[in-house]
Amino acid sequence: MVRWRAGVVTAVGRRWRGVVTLDVEVSSSVVRALAYPALTGEPLVGDRVLLNVGALEMGLGTGGYALVVALPDRLPPDPPVAPTRDSGHLVKARYTPLQALVLGVDEEASPHRAVMSSVDSIDGMPVVMADLHSALPAILAGLGAGGDDFTIAYVMTDGGALPAWFSRTLDGLRDHLAGTVTVGQSFGGDLEATTVHSGLLAARHVLRADVTVVAQGPGNLGTGTMWGFTGVAAGEAVNAVAALGGRPVASLRLSDADPRPRHRGISHHSLTAYGRVALAAADVVVPAPLPPSLAPLLDDALAVLSARHRIVHVPVDGLEAALKAAPVPLSTMGRGLDADPWYFLSAAAAGRHAAALLAQA
Question: By the 8 A CB rule, do 49 and 68 touch?
Answer without folding.
Answer: yes
